[in-house]
Amino acid sequence: MNLDFKVTLGTRGSKLAIVQAEYVAGKLRAAGLDVEIRIIRTTSDHLPDTPLAVIDRRDVFTRQLDEALISGDVDLAVHSLKDVPTELPDGIEIMAFTERHDPLDVLVSEERHDVDGLPEGAKVATSSLRRRAQLLHRRPDLEVSEIRGNVDTRVRKLREGEADALVLARAGLERLGLDAPHTVVPPDVILPAVGQGALAIAARGDTPLRETVCEALNHPSTEGSVLAERAMLRTLEGGCRVPVGALGVVESEQVWLRGIVASPDGALVYRGEAVGRDPEEIGERLARELLDQGAEIVLGEIRELRNP
User: Fold this and answer.
1) CA geometry: angle at 233 spanning 228 and 234, to 5°?
2) Cα–Cα distance between 75 and 82 in angstroms, integer?
3) Is residue 41 over pLDDT 90?
4) Which residues contact 293 (CB under 8 A, 6 or more apart)?
5) Residue 85, CA distances (Å) to 92, 240, 299 in order
6) How do strand 165-169 and strand 143-145 relate by DSSP bridges?
7) Quick one: average pLDDT of 53-70?
8) Strand pairing category for 76-80 and 199-204
9) For tag attachment on the chain, is the N or C end more exposed, with fewer CB atoms within 10 Å?
């Protein structure tokens, strides 16, 4: 499709975000679009030292990009899907989900420890409540500390001795090509964030780019997996800053979904799984099962802490 205007693709300004935007722009250019990339600073960029768990916003990584879409400053926006709230602003839609990279987390350490092999009392850095909760459930002896910064910044801080190990998304590490010694954390130890490893392409609902973007970038099996995960999160009424993990896999036209809700201290854990053909139904069903188990206790306490 050839349009008579230049398409502006909005992105955050981190190295990882720019790498992701360049990938998306390349796919769109191959589809015949003239694309330029525009960097937009987001809430997380303005609060670089504030722990994510205490920033009471679900759109901490996306708000300014949403505003740029609505105002017409950009035509498309690319996000790490794990950062995108399940409820989008009026007039904005996700046009495509890119093919998912490995969604699992990795444990970065000079000794290539796995979670069970970490020394007793080891200091592990992460900015995620989800990772903290599952780490402490598995290893309550660990000291889990807050860390902020882009992926390369976190790896540098680890090498400077701020922690013994660091938990990151494998997809981000690989997209940046960082040579950091690590082991993959299996999903029975830490379930990943909803949507982790995939990118989301957002636009105004009335965009003439819908068909081209979908054809160039959307990956059907990824779409089925992440729609189930996001339906689970939406039904739990949780944002991307709560201790909820999920992993959907599409096999033989069915979606197999696993989910977890855990208290920040790891003491309370609720797990479940569901299988079916309709991603939205599967996600909603698993969320209700987790709530019936008692997950509302955890989610309610977190809401109270943030809204006393």
Assistant:
1) 95
2) 21
3) no
4) 270, 272
5) 12, 7, 16
6) unpaired
7) 71
8) antiparallel
9) C
| Active-site residue list | 83
Under a CB-based contact definition with an 8 Å cutoff, are residues 66 and 77 in contact?
A: yes
Q: Is 236 helix (H, G, I), strand (E, B) or coil?
A: helix
Domain limits, the chain: 1-100+198-218, 105-184, 220-308
Ranges of H-type helices in 3-147:
15-30, 43-46, 63-71, 129-138
Residues 6+ positions from 153 with CB-CB distance below 8 Å? none
- Over residues 261-274, the pLDDT tens digits come to 999 999 999 999 99
Burial 270-294 (b: 16+ CB within 10 A, else e): bbbebebeebbebbbbbbbbbbeee
What's 182's DSSP letter? Answer: E
pTM: 0.90
B/e letters for 11-37, b = 16+ CB within 10 Å, e = fewer, are bbebebbeebbeebbebbeebebebeb
| Rounded distance between C-alpha atoms, residue 197 and residue 81, angstroms | 8
Give ∠ CA 202-207-210 in degrees, rounded to 5. Answer: 70
Selecting from 3.40.190.10, 3.90.660.10, 3.40.220.10, 3.30.300.20, what CATH number does the domain 1-100+198-218 have? Answer: 3.40.190.10
**Residue 74 is encoded by which pair of tokens?**
């950009």
DSSP 143-157: EEE---S-HHHHHHH
Amino acid identity at 126: T
Does 220-308 carry CATH code 3.40.50.11030? no
Instruction: Express each pLDDT in 115-132 by its tens digit.
Output: 999 999 999 999 899 999
